Amino acid sequence: MTKPILDVMNMNKDFQVKSKTALFRKPTSVRVLNDISFELIEGETLSIVGESGCGKTTLGRCIVRGMDASSGNVIYHTEDGQKIEFLKLKGKKSKQYRKDIQMIFQDPYSSLSPRMSVFDIISEPLIANFNLKKSKIEEKVTEIAEKTGLNVSYLRRYPHAFSGGQRQRIAIARALITQPRLIVCDEAVSALDVSIQAQIINLLKDLQEQYQITYIFISHDLSIVQNISDRVAVMHLGRIVELASTDSLFGQPKHPYTEALMSAVPQPDPEMKKDRIILEGEVPNPANPPSGCHFHPRCAYRTDKCVQQVPELREVGYNHFTACHYAEELHLRGVQNDAANTN
Ligand code: SF4
């Protein structure tokens, strides 16, 4: 049975941007998250993909409250069935529930304090959230260090003594120490070598199985996303333009932007290279987004309707949502379809 753990509802985020040339002009408001809504199911991995600047990292930060959303709501479903307005939590309740949702950042070199020992880094959230004896803290840190593949005899060392992969294991141990139910992984393996990426992905999968953790996995690497996700949301210019199960999205994308992203996924057959879709033009400026469908200046299938009308995110197949006026008519290429064509 599928049980929700989080509902993100109509989330918007605006940034105020000051012009460098017109010093005395009022700052302009730039919408970087535009009416984002989705439901997260307990135990699943939902990946969020899109080009850099699409708003995926901002979305992750707004969910964990590392940044305030401008409007919208996040409902957190607790283990005992309560529905909590997560963004409005204050005081004791905030302490009680915020530890359930943690984040792992992209850069293991800057996300760990160089002045703290690994033991102090991992134990910090534990000390902040629980009133535990020193011996219990030591026991828990040792346990989580072992689970994440860290050498416990090195826990008194400082982060600079560790490699990139080891530092990301430290970051994972720190995120896990409060026994969260949901972890937002923001490009958690992007800064690592390919062989280390595979180890960290396997570690995340093992931990998910062991602790029934739910992941929001933010990434631009579609090969990894295909490997790790149950569902995928595609973001373009602050909006979700497609949301579906991994098989459905990769096999039969329903949005031309997703099709273009898929075409860049490396294929074993070198002949497939010729099918890569190169998007025309620049990524649109979020301060001055195009009319109608924001993707229309770069879309090969656009019509006048696309220039004038904003497409709604709607269900076009079983649990397959897309924001394209012509989703039912277009026959777009997915990764698995391409593979089938080569047989
Ligand atoms: Fe392209 Fe039009 Fe669909 Fe937008 S609505 S993705 S411009 S076909």
Walk me through what this model shows.
The protein is of the alpha/beta class and 343 residues long. The chain has two domains: 4-14 and 30-229, P-loop containing nucleotide triphosphate hydrolases (Rossmann fold, 3-Layer(aba) Sandwich); 247-341, no CATH class. The chain is 31% helix and 22% strand. The protein has eleven helices and twelve strands. A hairpin with a 2-residue loop joins strand 9 and strand 10 (239-245). The protein is globular and about 70 Å long. The model is unreliable at 337-343 (pLDDT under 50).
Features:
343 residues; 31% helix; 11 helices; 12 strands; disordered C terminus; 22% strand; binds iron/sulfur cluster; 8-stranded mixed β-sheet; 4-stranded antiparallel β-sheet; alpha/beta
Structural classification: alpha/beta
What would CATH call the architecture of the largest domain? 3-Layer(aba) Sandwich
**Which ligands accompany this protein?**
iron/sulfur cluster
CATH superfamily of the largest domain: P-loop containing nucleotide triphosphate hydrolases
Q: Approximately how much helix is present in the residues?
A: 25-40%
Biggest sheet statistics:
8 strands, mixed
The rounded distance between the terminal residues' Cα atoms is 37 Å
**Main CATH class of the largest domain:** Alpha Beta
Low-pLDDT runs of 5+ residues are 337-343
Query: What's the alpha carbon Rg, rounded to whole Å?
Result: 21 Å
In what order do the strands lie side by side in the largest sheet? 6-7-8-3-9-10-12-11
| SSE succession | EEEHEEHEHHHEHEHEEHHHEEH
